[in-house]
Design goal:
Length: 458
């Protein structure tokens, strides 16, 4: 209907053209959400394929490490997802969330909370296109911002360790020649980190002033991404080289580095999480992320001095890892032949690439990095996640009402039948989200992402 009005003249034609653009924007968001969900599912399939291949090769040690990384990251992400629902007072702002609220805890216990959030965002996007409800735009954005933060956490607690694991296998067992599985898995993990970094950068631009936001397009995103690529690739390569010659001591190195980084994070003031346990969990997560790459999210005060001290420490650590790898390769050569010149070039290149990345980052921060005074203006002592039901209903009423699995499954079927065939539903919680919206303009912002943007631009 919207596209038909595009061909009319006058004011009707203009309004029809605007409606066409609006519908195209909604469809684009839905496609991007579906692609994100598809990449997420494809990554799980690759994980399962990798586990099966490692089991058939009888590489039980590598298989154990893969399972530990996958389960640890999944549990961590679901803990964050549950805590954020708790901070929001379990206020469900999409219809699918309202339907599945009685089993929300079960879904997170089985590490399905991330899938639940993805499906809720997809269903809300489809509902927005199907019924053309403007209030769903803020709801979809709110949930997608949470997903982008979780995706960033997952990229450095799951994808980065997987790259190290697969590179270690290639360096140690495959004679520096990648087979199909190793190459595909590394590329998938690199793509996961790339997508998460790009989405995170594009998300925090929302909190910039309009005049700065317009100039912060791909022109600034490309240098930002290239700097990240230099730094992350060099760090992952250095850790992989060390792990290929010291598969046991790499854990000692990780634990010692993590303890130091965790201590620094503990001395920093972080306000991303509200409860005390959540704050310590986030500091521990920061320690893991800092082991692979710098991330200033959630730190209250200016982080420029801390960032440069971090890069100095990382440069020294990478030089140590590459130097140790060169010494072990020269004193205890591997079972395959490799010239000493190649070893020296590889060890020096990894360290130099990180130094080049640091220099490029300095140039980027001086010339291209956007600054915003609007985000930091004023003091905010407490994060506000006040999402209320403007229809006057108790948002916890669905949770208090006991429902069987059969009833919940029936409600899910009714909801999807409504989306697909526009059938009326008797259940009030399954009706389109027309009386449910974010309480005020101030609470329409995702305050978790806003906290991260504060430290990003400080």
């Amino acid at each position: 209907m919207g596209c038909f009005r595009c061909y009319k003249s006058g004011s009707d034609g203009a309004s029809g053209e605007n409606e066409c653009k609006c519908n195209f924007k909604k469809l684009k968001k839905l496609i991007l959400t579906l692609l994100s969900l598809g990449l997420f599912v494809a990554d799980i399939v690759l994980d399962a394929w990798t586990a099966v291949v490692l089991f058939r090769r009888e590489a039980y040690w590598s298989l154990t490490m893969l399972v530990v990384v996958l389960l640890g990251s999944a549990v961590l992400i679901n803990i964050y997802s549950w805590l954020w629902y708790k901070y929001d007072k379990f206020t469900m702002i999409t219809n699918l969330e309202k339907v599945l609220l009685p089993r929300l805890g079960v879904l997170h216990c089985f590490t399905l909370g991330r899938y639940f959030r993805h499906l809720a965002a997809v269903s809300a996007s489809f509902e927005n296109i199907r019924f053309n409800k403007p209030e769903l735009e803020a709801i979809i954005s709110y949930r997608r911002y949470d997903l982008k933060i979780l995706r960033l956490f997952e990229s450095y607690t799951e994808s980065a360790p997987q790259i190290v694991l697969m590179l270690t296998i290639a360096l140690k067992d495959e004679g520096w020649i990648l087979n199909v599985l190793t190459a595909v898995k590394i590329l998938a993990s690199v793509a996961s980190i790339t997508v998460s970094e790009v989405k995170y950068y594009r998300a925090i631009i929302v909190f910039m002033p309009e005049e700065t936001k317009e100039s912060s397009g791909w022109f600034q995103l490309l240098p930002y991404f290239l700097v990240k690529l230099f730094l992350v690739a060099s760090r992952l390569a250095a850790v992989s080289l060390f792990a290929s010659v010291e598969p046991c001591f790499i854990f000692t190195h990780f634990i010692c580095s993590w303890l130091l980084l965790f201590f620094v994070a503990s001395c920093s003031e972080t306000n991303l999480m509200k409860c005390e346990g959540g704050k310590w969990l986030y500091r521990a997560t920061l320690g893991v992320m800092w082991y692979f790459n710098w991330f200033c999210g959630g730190v209250k005060w200016k982080t420029s001095k801390m960032m440069w001290l971090y890069h100095v420490y990382m440069q020294l650590d990478i030089a140590f890892l590459c130097g140790w790898w060169y010494w072990r390769m020269s004193s205890d050569p591997p079972h395959f032949e490799i010239s000493c010149v190649k070893v020296v070039i590889a060890a020096a290149a990894v360290s130099v690439i990180y130094l080049v990345g640091v220099l490029c980052k300095a140039v980027y921060l001086c010339i291209l990095h956007p600054e915003s005074t609007e985000i930091n203006s004023g003091e905010q002592t407490e994060l506000c996640y006040d999402l209320t039901d403007t229809g006057g209903k108790d948002s916890m009423s669905v949770k208090k009402k006991k429902q069987s699995c059969v009833q919940i499954f029936g409600n899910v079927l009714k909801y999807f039948k409504y989306l697909l065939f526009c059938r009326q539903i008797c259940e009030p919680r399954c009706e389109p989200t027309e009386t449910f919206e974010l309480a005020s303009d101030s609470s329409r912002d995702n305050m978790r992402l806003k906290e991260l943007a504060n430290s990003f631009y400080s």
